[in-house]
């Protein structure tokens, strides 16, 4: 059964997109107005278009994030057009970490990060309610220890 991230995570993503968009647009506007560079106007228009499309796609992108606990591994998925599926075997987990940004903390959310021996399989599950993240961390640590003990 697939578990999805909290719908509140959409707020975190939208706020991050808005802050980034405002900073980039302010930079392009400053070059256009203060530097009297006409090309910066086209960059500004392009940036506005990109950030508007990003804001429209954001809800669907957040809904695409999920994880599934299976018998021997954790399966993580994300992406709309370019989907990514990562399987992390319990016995290969070396570190399970919880991190919280200021916006996520205000919404009661956290992200769970798994570190394995292979750097390419590092997985971050964002937008989990704090209690769920702590329970999942404890469960995964116990599963990882039992799987490593069997090696």
TrEMBL record:
Signal peptide: none annotated. Keywords: Membrane, Transmembrane, Transmembrane helix. Residues 63-140 form the YdbS-like PH domain. The chain crosses the membrane at residues 9-33, 39-57. It holds the Pfam family bPH_2. This is YdbS-like PH domain-containing protein.
């Amino acid at each position: 059964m697939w578990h999805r991230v909290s719908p509140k995570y959409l707020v975190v993503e939208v706020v991050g997109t808005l802050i980034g968009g405002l900073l980039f647009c302010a930079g392009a506007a400053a070059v256009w107005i203060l530097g009297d560079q006409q090309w910066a106007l086209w960059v500004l228009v392009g940036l506005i278009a990109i950030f508007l499309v990003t804001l429209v796609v954001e809800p669907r992108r957040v809904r695409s994030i999920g994880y599934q606990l299976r018998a021997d591994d954790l399966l993580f998925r994300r992406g709309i057009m370019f989907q990514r599926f990562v399987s992390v075997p319990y016995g290969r987990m070396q570190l399970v970490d919880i991190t919280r940004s200021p916006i996520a903390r205000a919404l009661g959310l956290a992200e769970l990060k798994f570190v394995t021996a292979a750097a390419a399989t590092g997985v971050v599950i964002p937008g989990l309610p704090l209690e769920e993240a702590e329970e999942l961390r404890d469960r995964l640590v116990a599963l990882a220890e039992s799987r490593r003990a069997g090696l």
